[in-house]
Each structure stands twice: as C-alpha cells, then as structure tokens.
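Project standup — Tuesday

K.O.: blocked on the structure for the chain from last sprint. Re-posting the sequence here as requested.
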Amino acid sequence: MFFFLCVFSGHAREHLTHPTRAIQFLVGMRGKNETMAIGGPWSPSLDGPNPDKDPSVLVRTAIRACRALTGIDLSGCTQWKRFLEIHYRRQETR
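H.V.: unblocked you, prediction finished:
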C-alpha cells in the first residue's frame, strides 16, 4: 500500500524510491567474495528454551551472535521486528 500511495500521489516518478532500495542490510564477509548473514544458531543453554513460544529467546540469540561476529552490542535496542527468516539448506559433509 505504501508504494502504491507513493507512486500515485502526484510526485514526479523520477524522485521515487522503491521500498526494496530503501532497505539496507549489514552482512559479513567470508573470504574475499562471499557474503554471509550476521547471525548464528540458537543455543538453549545461552539464549533460553523454546523460541517458538518466547520471541525474546531469538532476540537474545541475535544479540549474542551479532556481538560475537561484529563486536556490535544490540542489547540497547528496545524494539525488534521479525521480518525475515533464513533457512540454510546445505548438504551434510562427511
């Protein structure tokens, strides 16, 4: 709806920015040319049990993983919005 209102609100089309261009992500680098999502696995002993029933468990996971990978402390963030979930489907290595 937001994009629809922007396009049809009378603004000149050349001044519009599509919402997908307005969102930016912080990513990590693995090696020279491979980007990776900043995050990590949930740990029941470190983050708490049952993230399906308690969203704060995943917040603790995000805070811990981000601090470990980047040194950035997100513990001061007061609002969290769940908008993306990444599932890695990798072949098992033997």
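K.O.: great, moving the ticket to review. The chain has four helices and two strands. Residues 2-70 form one domain.
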